[in-house]
């Protein structure tokens, strides 16, 4: 089933709803599985015709997958750039899949919990993303979908290495597990670099809100496993889950410190941020992220009582450029986007 | 009659009311006359006893002056520092008179239009300050009070030089006329230095909100005559009044430019400033002046419609440190002052 912009939930994917375990810090948990079809070369060596064959082979399978509550399928070769960018902002496709060429596609459930990218780096990348700290449930759903797909197609695998993937870092389980965390207190108290170093020592990677190479705007960080080869799914999830309580505890400690030693400064920062978001007539993307971060902290610390957490989470996505242009129904120059962004944020938070 | 802190108008002097000619730009017009008593040495050469004699000689005269609607008299030698600072912030005494020692005093009307400092640089300095562009009326009232005083005491004067004063720059008329202007557009478009240079070339001086050597915070500038010797009162007022329309026109032009070419940025700046003033939990004096300036511009340009101009004018004075401490009834550390300032501004502008 094809998708129109108007069919998307105007509040963003379900993973932004801000409910669940440690939702004061953890925005979402995400699992992705990299798979390739047996009998087809990896994409780096596949011809245009073979790429199209992969898409054609997978499309009916994805239709059968019955992603909840309704499956959308987007032929990305046929799509205009604004919808592709919109899908990136939505975390439904990667920036790589957006900007690459040739036959490629994505299927996703209308609740945006599960998505399958076709012809990204691998033939197939399955992603499940859920609100709050919920890695086990997230992995469980990804596994189910993986097994369903495996009943329909044969995946390239080796008895020695496990699943075969285009890049050796994904060989084995093809599993990447990550959590998106909001760490404003660690940033404010300049402790975030220590967290990064400590995460890296345990084989984890830290990236920004929009993945590899993106700035961590809004104090949002994705923490994920680095290595998949030679490890079981359980041990990958386990190494991430062992690290998370330490980061949570550290952020908690920093929030406590801000709340006691610098209470007034903290309240001042949160109240000003909300006031600016409610008053600005022009707002850059970076400003929006910065002030939303302070507002989010204010909401979870009960300093700001008249804003709902889901509204703040959603704005991190809904204020992105392609989203604003979608709302406006046309391409906008950066200055006009800033005005549109300010208007939208003002209306949402008033 | 002696004065208690509680007797002051909680909205500040009448000159802050923001009504009258060109009150969109001109906060107030001020005239001061420097006079010395015949038969007494200038203060630089006067003994402690002589200084006391001057105070004693002038006090009954000041009581007779009947400043409207009620005359207050403050013996500054007897006063605690907080009241003296409060009077400086009120523009009723100079910083010099505040920090000097020995017998000295001030008398002023409870509407704070007229004030007479005793033993500042000269034995007597009479000041009249009125809202908006009103130099002629202001000078007229100062002259009347000057004549009334001259009926009671003899002023030191020479037929050749006119009134004699401690500093040669005041000899002759002893007149300094000034206007306090709000020039945010000239500052924003980086044209203010040109105005200064141009004013200086015509024998005028530009100073900040609190006189000589103070920073021009809040985009507020006092423009006054430099030279009094060899000029009549009329020609002094005339040279200032010739310059003022040019500054007003230039600020008007810059406001027009901001309003057309950068309308959104201007609206954004004004709305954010008001939002911050209404939300902050801690506010430095400098921040208050900066945001009040943007709000004042927004009010006179009808961008901000739910704030009254007098409230903004008054806050420039009422948010000063001694005023905050007066409200609190005790000395406050800078951090506590910032919190008190934020609370007061929030309440006033809500």
Q: In summary, what is this structure?
A:
The structure is a homodimer of 350-residue chains. Chain A has 350 residues and is of the alpha+beta class. The first copy, chain A, is built from 12 helices and 10 strands.
**Overall outline of chain A:** globular
User: Largest beta sheet of chain A: what is the strand line-up?
Assistant: 2-3-4-5-1-8-10-9
Q: Which runs of chain A of at least 5 residues are low in confidence (pLDDT < 50)?
A: none
Class from helix and strand fractions of chain A: alpha+beta
Report the average pLDDT across residues of chain A: 93
Q: How far do the termini of chain A sit from each other? A: 36 Å
- β content of chain A, as a range? 15-25%
Which architecture of the largest domain in chain A per CATH? Answer: 2-Layer Sandwich
CATH topology of the largest domain in chain A: Creatine Kinase, Chain A, domain 2
Identify the biggest protein-protein contact and residues per side.
A-B, 17 and 17 residues
- The CATH class assignment of the largest domain in chain A is Alpha Beta
**What is the gyration radius of chain A calculated from CA atoms?**
20 Å
Helix/strand order of chain A: EHEHHEEEHEEEHHEEHHHHHH
Question: Can you count the helices of chain A?
Answer: 12
Structural commentary:
2 copies of one chain form a homodimer. The first copy, chain A, has 350 residues and is of the alpha+beta class. The first copy, chain A, has helices at residues 48-65, 81-89, 95-99, 135-152, 184-188, 192-201, 233-261, 263-279, 285-300, 309-318, 321-328, 334-349; strands at residues 26-35, 71-75, 105-109, 114-118, 124-131, 157-158, 162-163, 175-182, 204-207, 220-225. In chain A, the strands form 2 sheets. In chain A, strands 2-3-4-5-1-8-10-9 form an 8-stranded antiparallel sheet. Chain A has a two-stranded antiparallel sheet with strand order 6-7. Chain A is globular. The two termini of chain A are 36 Å apart. The model of chain A has no long low-confidence stretch (mean pLDDT 93). The A-B interface holds A 264-265, 267-268, 271-272, 274-276, 278-282, 335, 339, 342 and B 264-265, 267-268, 271-272, 274-276, 278-282, 335, 339, 342.
């Amino acid at each position: 089933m094809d998708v129109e912009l108007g069919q998307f939930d105007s509040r963003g994917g379900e993973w932004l709803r801000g409910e669940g375990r440690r939702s004061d810090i953890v925005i979402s948990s995400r699992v992705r599985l990299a798979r390739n079809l047996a009998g087809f070369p990896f994409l780096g060596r596949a011809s245009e015709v073979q790429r199209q064959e992969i898409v054609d082979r997978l499309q009916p399978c994805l239709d059968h997958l019955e992603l909840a509550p309704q499956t959308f399928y987007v032929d990305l070769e046929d799509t205009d750039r604004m919808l592709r960018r919109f899908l990136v902002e939505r975390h439904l496709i990667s920036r790589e899949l957006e900007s690459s060429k040739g036959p490629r596609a994505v299927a996703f459930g209308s609740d945006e919990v599960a998505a399958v990218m076709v012809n990204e780096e691998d033939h197939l990348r399955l992603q499940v993303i859920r609100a709050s700290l919920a890695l086990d449930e997230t992995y469980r759903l990804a596994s189910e979908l993986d097994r369903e797909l495996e009943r329909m197609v044969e995946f390239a695998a080796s008895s020695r290495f496990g699943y075969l993937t285009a890049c050796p870092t994904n060989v084995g389980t093809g599993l990447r597990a990550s959590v998106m965390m909001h760490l404003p207190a660690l940033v404010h108290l300049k402790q975030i670099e220590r967290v990064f170093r400590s995460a890296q020592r345990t084989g984890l990677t830290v990236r920004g809100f929009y993945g590899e190479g993106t700035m961590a705007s809004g104090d949002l960080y994705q923490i994920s496993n680095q290595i998949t080869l030679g490890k079981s799914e359980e041990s990958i999830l386990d190494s991430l889950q062992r690290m998370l309580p330490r980061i949570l505890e550290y952020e908690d400690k920093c929030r406590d410190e801000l709340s006691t030693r610098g209470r007034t400064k903290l309240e001042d920062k949160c109240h000003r941020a909300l006031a600016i978001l409610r008053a600005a007539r022009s707002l850059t993307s970076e400003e929006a992220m910065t002030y939303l971060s302070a507002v989010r902290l204010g909401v979870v610390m009960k300093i700001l009582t008249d804003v709902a957490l889901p509204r703040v989470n959603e704005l991190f996505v809904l204020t992105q450029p392609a989203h604003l242009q979608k709302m406006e129904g046309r391409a906008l120059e950066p200055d006009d986007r800033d005005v549109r962004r300010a208007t939208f944020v003002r209306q949402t938070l008033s």
